[in-house]
Design a protein that fits this description.
By secondary structure, this protein is of the alpha/beta class. The chain contains seven helices and ten strands. It has one domain: Spore Coat Polysaccharide Biosynthesis Protein SpsA, Chain A (Alpha-Beta Complex), CATH 3.90.550. Helices cover about 30% and strands about 20% of the residues. This is Pseudaminic acid cytidylyltransferase.
Length: about 230
C-alpha cells in the first residue's frame, strides 16, 4: 500500500505554531492533507506529531494520527528520513503492509496534485529510490560570488568567469514540498538528494516557508494564483 506521512511537530521556532497557523482561511496543514486526499493515491493519510493540538486539527481534517511521535524525533535536530522511517515502522506495527511512503511537508499551500501523481509515476517506473520536486536556480550556480568581510567580491568558481551563461549546465534545488520513497529507502537512511529523481516545477511554485518573509511571499503568490484560476 501507499501512505502519505505529514511530519508536523509543535515546536517551530521562526514561525510559532506554523503548521496550524491560519493561511488564507485554513490551518496551514490543511493544504498538505487536502492534496493527499485529492490525488487519490493513498490508502492512509497519516500525520506524525508530538503535539495534541496539531493532532486534533489533523483528525478534524480527515487525517489519521495513529501514534504520537517520540520526543527524540521532535526537536530541532530531527531529520526527515528518520522521522518517516519511524512512522513507517509504527504503521507496520498496526498491520499495514506499507510499500511506498510519501512525506508531504505541512507548509505547502502551493502544492499541486498533478505533481504528486507525476512523481509517483517516476518512482514506480524504477531507477531511483525516491522522487520529488525540484526547481532551477534563477542564475547560473557556476557564476556564484562570495563576499569578503571588507565587501570585496570574488567568484566561487574562477574557471567559469569567462564562460557564457547559456553554455553552463543548469543547477536545481529541492522545492521542499514532498518526497516519494520506497520503504526500504526510508529505512536505510539514504537521502532523497542522493538516491532520487527530480520533477522540475516552475520557480514561482516553490516556496519553502521557513521565515516570516517566506510566509508573506507565499500569501502573495497564493492570492495571485487563485485570482488567475478564478478568472
Amino acid at each position: 500500500m501507499r501512505i502519505a506521512v505529514i511530519p508536523a511537530r509543535g515546536g517551530s521556532k521562526r514561525i510559532p505554531r506554523k503548521n496550524i497557523k491560519e493561511f488564507a482561511g485554513k490551518p496551514m496543514i490543511a493544504y498538505a492533507i487536502g492534496a493527499a486526499f485529492e490525488c487519490g493515491l493513498f490508502e492512509h493519510v497519516v500525520v506524525t506529531t508530538d503535539d495534541d493540538e496539531i493532532a486534533g486539527i489533523a483528525r478534524g481534517l480527515g487525517a489519521e494520527v495513529p501514534f504520537k511521535r517520540p520526543a527524540e524525533l521532535s526537536d530541532d535536530h530531527a531529520g526527515t528520513v528518520p522521522v518517516i522511517a519511524h512512522a513507517i515502522d509504527a504503521c507496520a506495527s498496526l498491520g499495514w503492509d506499507v510499500r511506498v511512503a510519501c512525506c508531504i511537508y505541512p507548509g505547502v499551500p502551493l502544492i499541486q496534485v498533478d505533481d504528486l501523481r507525476d512523481t509517483c509515476k517516476m518512482l514506480e517506473e524504477g531507477g531511483a529510490d525516491y522522487a520529488f520536486t525540484v526547481t532551477s536556480f534563477p542564475a547560473a550556480i557556476q557564476r556564484a560570488l562570495k563576499r569578503g568581510a571588507d565587501g570585496r567580491m570574488a567568484p566561487f568558481y574562477p574557471e567559469f568567469v569567462r564562460t557564457r551563461t547559456q553554455d553552463l549546465e543548469p543547477g536545481y534545488y529541492d522545492a521542499g514540498q514532498f518526497y516519494w520513497g520506497t520503504v526500504d529507502a526510508w529505512r536505510s537512511g539514504r537521502s532523497p538528494h542522493q538516491a532520487g529523481k527530480g520533477l522540475v516545477i516552475p520557480e514561482w511554485r516553490a516556496v519553502d516557508i521557513d521565515t516570516p518573509d517566506d510566509w508573506a511571499r507565499a500569501e502573495v503568490l497564493y492570492r495571485m494564483i487563485n485570482r488567475r484560476d478564478a478568472g
